[in-house]
Every structure is written in structure tokens, then in C-alpha cells.
Amino acid sequence: MSLAPVELLLVLGVVGFYLQDALMLLHYDEIVVVRHGRDWRASTGSNTQWRGRYLYLPDPLWPAAPLWRCGWLGDPAQSPAEHWAGLDHFVQALHGFGAACRLLWILLLVALPLLLWRFPHPLAMLALAVSIYATVLAMGLRIWRYRRVLELSGRQALSVSFELLCCPPHALNVVRRLCARRGLHGNAIDAARRLLPADERARLADAIAERADMAIDFHGDDARLLGAKQRLEQLR
After folding, report:
1. How far apart, in whole angstroms, are the C-alpha atoms of residue 11 and residue 196?
2. Is 190:78 a contact under the CB 8 Å cutoff?
3. How many H-runs (helices) and E-runs (strands) does the chain carry?
4. Exposure of 13 by Cβ count < 10 A (0-12 exposed, 13-18 middle, 19+ buried)?
5. Percent of the chain with pLDDT over 90
6. Residue 38 burial (10 A CB sphere; 0-12, 13-18, 19+)
7. DSSP helix/strand/coil, 196
8. 40-44, 80-84, 158-162, 217-221: range with lowest mean pLDDT
9. Rounded to 5°, angle at Cα 94 from 91 and 98
10. Within 10 A of 193 (CB to CB), how many other CB atoms are there?
11. pLDDT reported for residue 127
């Protein structure tokens, strides 16, 4: 028994909405820092460009991994300083979404295709739909409960929760959406010094230096680019 065209389109639509919502387009002076367990990693994105920006797709198998994008070009002295204790509390609040994200991932990307393929009974599909929306509702309730730690107003918490209910595939990216709303303050080089292990810092410094050299070739000896290259020595 194979999937009918309409059922196949439904599955592809769910996967497409999830990946499209997770995909990032990074400027040449941006990096992404990601936390997996207790470890932090960083990336400047792939070498593939679209409209002058670098594509970055977070690991689709780890939807609950906190991640932020930040720039390395600006002067750290002119950037607002990050409140690291507040960031730690924020990350701790995000950990509570892990189980719900994993469950929703299984319901949408495993259970849904299997039911459509092997047992598309109306009662089975109804039970699946109830499970999906119950999981998303639990996410929304957690957002409301921890809205202060997540640095959201009551209206913002309700708005985020409503968006997730409207599109469950986007709810898979709830952690990424909350991270994007908060942002990571300060300069990317300072963040890398604080968060990354030594080997990861050195690798990131080489990747940023390559991007900076490309930008210098294009823009000339821009003072901000030269200053950023000098600050990269802090990562080595």
C-alpha cells in the first residue's frame, strides 16, 4: 500500500513547513551558536548562498537545541553587554520543552506518515490530531507559565502560543523561535570566548577570518573589518 498523491503532499508539506521555518539566512558577518547538551558549538553557515546570504539549517533531529545568531563586525564597546546569568536561566527554562519537541517530532514526522501509509482509519487520524494539538497546547501553557524567565510579556506569550497552535510543524521550532525573540546581546567574538571550548574557538576564528578576507577584497580596507580581524586573536 503506497501513499496517495494527496497524502504524500500532506507529509511533504509538514516536513517542508518544519524545515522552512528552521532555515536561516546568515549575513557574512553573522555566526550561529548552538547548545547540544552541555556543549556549545558555532557555525558560520554553509558556503551555499541565496541572495547574498549563507544558508544554515539547524540539525533537524535536534529541534530543542537552543541556538542564537549574532554578528562579529560591530565594536564590542558599542554593543549592549549580555547578561550571562539571565542567559543561563533562559536556557534552563528552554530545557523543559525538550520532551514536548521530541514527542511532536515523532507524531508529525514518524506517526503521521506511517498511519497514512498503513492505517489511515478516521479514528486513528483523529487520535493523532488530538495528540498533536495536546502537545502543542502543553507547549503554549509552558510558555505562559515561564513567560518572565523567557522574557516575554503576557501578550507576547499568548501571541507565540497562538502561532504554534495555528501551525503545528512550526511548533517543532518553539525553542528556536524563543531564542530568536530574545536574541544574544553583544559581539559574537565575546560570546565565543565565553561559551565555546578552545578547539571550537580556534576553528571558528579561522572561519570568520576567511569571511573577513573575502569582505576586505570586496569592500577594501574597511576599519571595522580590520578591527574584527584583530579581535579574532582573542579566540586563538
Report:
1. 37
2. no
3. 11, 6
4. exposed
5. 65
6. exposed
7. coil
8. 217-221
9. 130
10. 13
11. 97
Q: Residue 126 has which C-alpha cell?
A: 483523529
- Of 72-76, 134-138, 184-188, 201-205, minimum mean pLDDT range: 72-76
Q: Which residue has the cell 533537524?
A: 60
Task: Determine the Cα–Cα distance for residues 59 and 37; give it in Å rounded to an integer.
Answer: 14
Residue 199: which H helix or E strand, with range?
helix 198-219
Query: What's the pLDDT at 68?
Result: 95
Using CA atoms, how far apart are residues 100 and 8, in angstroms rounded to an integer? Answer: 25
Residue matched to cell numbers 502537545: 135
What is residue 221's predicted lDDT score, i.e. its pLDDT?
73
pTM score? 0.90
Q: Is the model's pLDDT at 43 over the cut of 60?
A: yes
In the three-class reduction of DSSP (H, G, I as helix; E, B as strand; rest coil), residue 82 is classed as coil
Please state the length of the chain. 236
More confident residue, 175 or 223: 175
Distances (CA, A) of 110 to 8, 197, 206: 13, 35, 39
First to last CA, the chain: 57
Q: Is 43 helix (H, G, I), strand (E, B) or coil?
A: strand
Residue with cell 550571562: 84
